[in-house]
Amino acid sequence: DIQMTQSPSSLSASVGDRVTITCRASQYINNWLAWYQQKPEKAPKSLIYAASSLQSGVPSRFSGSGSGTNFTLTISSLQPEDFATYYCQQYHNYPRTFGQGTKVEIK
Amino acid sequence: EVQVVESGGDLVQPGGSLRLSCAASGFTFTTYWMTWVRQAPGKGLEWVANIKEDGSEKNYVDSVKGRFTISRDNAKNSLYLQMSSLRAEDTAVYYCARGASDSDYWGQGTPVTVSS
């Protein structure tokens, strides 16, 4: 199975900060990577697919980059509604696998 | 509006069985793969299984192979997860999601608790 490792596991940031989360795959996955946002007691929400394509309706302050084994999710200017946990997921191979999550908290 | 709504979660004893359902609406169900993902209490997301548009291909995570069966009824726009030989480690919220790869729409989840 492909292991997905996110860093950091948690971070504290202020409104307006630029935030970057990284995701590393244990083997090559091309650009078959998605990012999700999950708020407490809510279902995950899709943000990005194919490593850098924004889902419809997702604010442009979110962006994704990377290919191969190293990927990043960037929030250019953190907003109050962005405090949540973020997950990456590979879909290059079965079983699909998720990173362990990165919790973004208010500083 | 795209909607997927799960149901069927319950408290079940170890070794027991349960069937989860997911009702889809707002899109052409027959043209999408569908997926089940679960989340144990306080833990991250775990992909469980997915199924092709016509049901001809199914994939599972190793930990549920031989115990869980994913299926669909395209006439009813519904997805199912039949779970048997349930274990305490199957305790989780189970989400239904659209798509084979990245999942763009998710339901609100249905909770399954395996405990005596």
Entry summary:
The complex is a heterodimer of chains A (107) and B (116). With 107 residues, chain A is mainly β.
How would you describe this structure to a colleague?
The complex is a heterodimer of chains A (107) and B (116). Chain A is an all-beta fold. Chain A has strands at residues 4-7, 10-13, 19-25, 33-38, 45-49, 53-54, 62-67, 70-75, 85-90, 97-98, 102-106. Chain A is built from no helices and 11 strands. The termini of chain A are far apart. The model of chain A has no long low-confidence stretch (mean pLDDT 97). Chain B is mostly beta strands and 116 residues long. In chain B, 0% of the residues lie in helices and 47% in strands. Chain B is built from no helices and 10 strands. Chains A and B meet through strand 4, strand 5 and strand 10 of A and strand 5 of B.
General shape of chain B: globular
For this structure, the quaternary state is heterodimer
Distance between the termini of chain A: 36 Å
Strand tally of chain B: 10
Within the largest sheet of chain B, what's the order of strands?
A: 2-10-9-4-5-6
**Residue runs with pLDDT of under 50 for 5 or more positions of chain A:** none
SS elements, strand count of chain A: 11
Question: Beta-sheet strand percentage of chain B?
Answer: over 45%
Class of secondary structure makeup of chain A: mainly beta
Major protein interface:
A-B, 24 and 22 residues
Helix share, percent of chain B: under 10%
List the helices and strands and how they pair.
The complex is a heterodimer of chains A (107) and B (116).
Chain A: E1 4-7, E2 10-13, E3 19-25, E4 33-38, E5 45-49, E6 53-54, E7 62-67, E8 70-75, E9 85-90, E10 97-98, E11 102-106
Parallel strand pairs in A: 2-11
Antiparallel strand pairs in A: 1-3, 3-8, 4-5, 4-9, 5-6, 7-8, 9-10, 9-11
Chain B: E1 3-7, E2 11-12, E3 18-25, E4 34-39, E5 45-51, E6 58-60, E7 68-73, E8 78-83, E9 92-98, E10 110-114
Parallel strand pairs in B: 2-10
Antiparallel strand pairs in B: 1-3, 3-8, 4-5, 4-9, 5-6, 7-8, 9-10
